[in-house]
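Need a sequence for this fold. Nothing fancy.
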């Protein structure tokens, strides 16, 4: 599990190092690409976390804040993802500064959830 999280964070760090093909699906828009990668990484990390919490619930009873966090994410992640995807689509349709700012604000919520999930998983494996 720890190795998977390290690889995930390493992959996210490389986002800025890519050049995007102007003829490809992103039409050279590295900002849109980075947002898509961020949305996917947040979904994958939070999904891994809530599944991990559920599968290890008995062993995690000494840390009730982990279950509380996982339950909160289970409740709110569909809304957070829906908002992020809608704002991503709005930015893709009209790549304005305002649309990008709104998308980045929604993504900040996903990144906070992803960070919290990763912290709980890492702290429980040490």
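Here you go.
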């Amino acid at each position: 599990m720890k190795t998977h999280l390290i690889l995930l964070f390493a992959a996210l760090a490389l986002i800025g190092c890519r050049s995007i093909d102007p003829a490809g699906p992103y039409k050279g828009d590295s900002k849109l690409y980075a947002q898509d990668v961020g949305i996917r990484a947040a979904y994958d990390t939070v999904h891994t976390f809530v599944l991990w919490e559920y599968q290890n619930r008995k062993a995690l009873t000494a840390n009730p804040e982990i279950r509380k966090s996982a339950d909160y994410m289970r409740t709110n992640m569909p809304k957070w993802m829906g908002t992020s995807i809608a704002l991503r689509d709005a930015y893709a349709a009209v790549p304005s500064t305002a649309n990008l700012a709104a998308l980045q604000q929604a993504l900040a919520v996903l990144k906070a959830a992803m960070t919290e999930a990763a912290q709980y998983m890492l702290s429980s494996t040490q």
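For context: The chain is about 75% helix and 0% strand.
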